Amino acid sequence: MTCGKRLFNVRGEFQRFYGAAGRSARGTMTEGGKKPSLDELDAKIRAAKDHAGLSQRQKLGKDRGNGDQARGLSFAIRLGTELVAALMIGVGIGYFLDRWLETGPWFMIAFFFLGAASGIMNVYRAALGYDSAVGYHPADGEEGDKDESDPNRR
Amino acid sequence: MAGPLAQFEIKAIGGEAGVSLAEQSPYVFTNSALWMVITVAAITIFMVLGMRKREMVPGAWQSMAEASYEFISGMIRDNAGDEGRRFFPFIFSLFMFVLFGNLMGLLPYSFTFTSHIIVTAVMAVFVFVGVTLVGIAKHGLHFFSFFVPSGVPAFMIPIMVPIEIISYLSRPVSMSIRLFANMMAGHTMMKVFAGFIVPLGFFGVAPLIMDVALTGFEVLVAFLQAYVFTVLTCLYLNDALHLH
């Protein structure tokens, strides 16, 4: 099934931390220095994990082509939600301003267009891989890390 | 046979018999509330009993508890920076609640409270208001410079500011719709296919296979949506803390 691919990042990350969990617990617990062999074990695990992390990253790069369909579908759903959500908020604001000020349909019409504009802007930003809404800035963090942390990419 | 949407019906538990939900007192204990309680209890058992032994080399259960801790702590570090660490308890609770709610909703005869928009919307609004308050507390009135995009000509600003504000307000909406729609769509689809299995006789094998595949898919979706919900919280927190 193609949907498995989409989750690959998440599972990979989970597994990475699954490995890391043992290490940190051990790190705090060996302070008494009861079993020096654990330190060796620790170093070994760390080396193996670094290696695994590297190969996983390479695999992720290779994976990119295959899971395109599933990723594309989920991305399309995301874009649709962004567009509609902003429009809903815009029309909602307009509707309640009209009810409050008794100004006929005018606020609703104005805010319909503002909502549509902000919906399109959200989609534009999401499509460019910018951070979710507000401000014309790319997401923080280095480029390599972004693919793992950014939901826009799924 | 129950329709595909019957699984989302809210029912009172222990209320007066024969009285519809709307006519009961507004503080009825429902199946939705029951499954939230069960979820919280399951998380508590999972974390507390899992960590009780505190073994130096963790067993499977302890590893899982530690892995979830490390997973969220890494997520916060990557997406919200070190300042975001203060919010670990909240974000961890949110993630576990959504994840366990999604996963336990897959059990037969259970109820998926995350498939109701009122539940996801409350969580999203809570995040939204909290993040906004954090931003205002940290930056004071400077926080509102957030709504003035950089590099925009002065005459465009009166138009851009309302657009940015609407865009900001649409965050909880899209966040809650995404979680609830995914859960509801998946469960409805499973039920629709399941409804075909028996009436089709021998050919019911086809929807049965489909349902098996969908069950696996739903587990992935349950995890992914909990992850997305939490990552978005971290990203919004990052926005509020650092204002770009």
From TrEMBL, chain A:
<feature type="transmembrane region" description="Helical">
    <location>
        <begin position="75"/>
        <end position="97"/>
    </location>
</feature>
<dbReference type="InterPro" id="IPR032820">
    <property type="entry name" value="ATPase_put"/>
</dbReference>
<keyword id="KW-0812">Transmembrane</keyword>
<keyword id="KW-1133">Transmembrane helix</keyword>
<protein>
    <submittedName>
        <fullName>ATP synthase protein I</fullName>
    </submittedName>
</protein>
<keyword id="KW-0472">Membrane</keyword>
<dbReference type="Pfam" id="PF09527">
    <property type="entry name" value="ATPase_gene1"/>
</dbReference>
<feature type="transmembrane region" description="Helical">
    <location>
        <begin position="103"/>
        <end position="124"/>
    </location>
</feature>
UniProtKB/TrEMBL annotation, chain B:
<dbReference type="GO" id="GO:0005886">
    <property type="term" value="C:plasma membrane"/>
</dbReference>
<dbReference type="GO" id="GO:0046933">
    <property type="term" value="F:proton-transporting ATP synthase activity, rotational mechanism"/>
</dbReference>
<keyword id="KW-0066">ATP synthesis</keyword>
<keyword id="KW-0138">CF(0)</keyword>
<keyword id="KW-1003">Cell membrane</keyword>
<dbReference type="InterPro" id="IPR035908">
    <property type="entry name" value="F0_ATP_A_sf"/>
</dbReference>
<feature type="transmembrane region" description="Helical">
    <location>
        <begin position="87"/>
        <end position="107"/>
    </location>
</feature>
<keyword id="KW-0813">Transport</keyword>
<feature type="transmembrane region" description="Helical">
    <location>
        <begin position="113"/>
        <end position="136"/>
    </location>
</feature>
<dbReference type="Pfam" id="PF00119">
    <property type="entry name" value="ATP-synt_A"/>
</dbReference>
<comment type="function">
    <text>Key component of the proton channel; it plays a direct role in the translocation of protons across the membrane.</text>
</comment>
<keyword id="KW-0812">Transmembrane</keyword>
<feature type="transmembrane region" description="Helical">
    <location>
        <begin position="33"/>
        <end position="51"/>
    </location>
</feature>
<keyword id="KW-1133">Transmembrane helix</keyword>
<keyword id="KW-0472">Membrane</keyword>
<protein>
    <recommendedName>
        <fullName>ATP synthase subunit a</fullName>
    </recommendedName>
</protein>
<comment type="similarity">
    <text>Belongs to the ATPase A chain family.</text>
</comment>
<feature type="transmembrane region" description="Helical">
    <location>
        <begin position="217"/>
        <end position="238"/>
    </location>
</feature>
<feature type="transmembrane region" description="Helical">
    <location>
        <begin position="143"/>
        <end position="169"/>
    </location>
</feature>
<feature type="transmembrane region" description="Helical">
    <location>
        <begin position="189"/>
        <end position="210"/>
    </location>
</feature>
<dbReference type="GO" id="GO:0045259">
    <property type="term" value="C:proton-transporting ATP synthase complex"/>
</dbReference>
<dbReference type="InterPro" id="IPR023011">
    <property type="entry name" value="ATP_synth_F0_asu_AS"/>
</dbReference>
